[in-house]
Amino acid sequence: MSCASKRQHSGKSTYRFRTLSEVLPPPLPALPHAAPEAPPPDLTQWVQGNCGIRGVHHFESHKPGPHIAVTALMHGNEYAGAHALAQILATPLQPTLGRLSLIFLNLEAYAAFDPRRPSQFRFVEEDMNRLWMPELIRSAHSSVEMRRVRELLPVIDTVDVLLDLHSMTWPSATLLLTSMAERNLLMANTLACGQAKPPQVVLDQGHPAGPRLIDYERFSDPTGTARACLLEAGQHWTRSATEQSLLTARIFLAQHGMIPPLPVPAPTHSCVHAMVTDCVVAQTAGFAFIRSFMGGDIIEHAGTLIAIDGMDEIRTPYNNCMLVIPNLRPRRGHTAVRLARVL
Ligand SMILES: [Zn+2]
């Protein structure tokens, strides 16, 4: 016997079904990554930058055109994107139009990275990807990450198209995340469809804890023209995440004339688009998925049981429900998974 209840989380609805039956949660999955598969890159020669701002590498064509940027290391322990930028910087860059910036973002957090404790050092004092709010940037608030945001702002404020490279804690399909502005969906779609196995394109409204770089008003204002999206390249510290970061960054640069054109491969998979509708927050310390879902898994039928949270059952609210970045060991009060409707 069960009855449905609907809880509110940050203005978004989550469907829960209270059960009277005895349900034993499955054992917790093991934490991932006993040891990083790909070692952290040596960024010694890139830390200084070439334009007076640490970690910023800038290239001018001296011809009209957009300012294109690729950013990595927003989170200090997500170094797949840093591998990609270091490899791109290792060959001479000469944009044919406009300007190019390649930026290593949170250098302090990366400098602290310790492979013996790889899950730490996402940031030094606070999550740099929740600070991209003009009022906050102009305020007296201060931290290592806030100071870095302010240092980079003169560059970011002139970028026309930006790709931000990240990776994930748990196994997942590759994702391209965009804010809700249609121009960003088009950008992500073009980037995804340039790949034989396109990343899943996921639209969302950001995080209640604060705006990401891709949510910064320059990129998300409905009346603006600048565009941005965020690549989640796969699981942290895997060789495949590095390869995916490099592939996506190179396709992005080629699409904008920053490097020579690349051959467009025949697609082996179709493009999947989804829109985040619900954020499931763990209400108890006993939250557990019924199996080790992978990010990007699509659950075909509405009402399918996916997790137990205390005495609550968490079921999918609609057919073809995508699980976006499930956290297989969420702490109480933290996001366990976001649910997205496949479009
Ligand atoms: Zn990240």
From TrEMBL:
It is an enzyme of class 3 (hydrolase). GO terms for cellular component: cytosol. This is Peptidase M14. PANTHER family: ASPARTOACYLASE, SUCCINYLGLUTAMATE DESUCCINYLASE. Gene3D superfamilies: Zn peptidases. InterPro entries: AspA/AstE_fam (IPR050178), AstE_AspA_cat (IPR055438). Keywords: Hydrolase, Metal-binding, Zinc. GO terms for molecular function: aspartoacylase activity; hydrolase activity, acting on ester bonds; metal ion binding. Residues 64-244 form the Succinylglutamate desuccinylase/Aspartoacylase catalytic domain. Pfam families: AstE_AspA_cat. Its cofactor is Zn(2+). Its EC number is 3.5.1.15. It comes from the Bacteria.
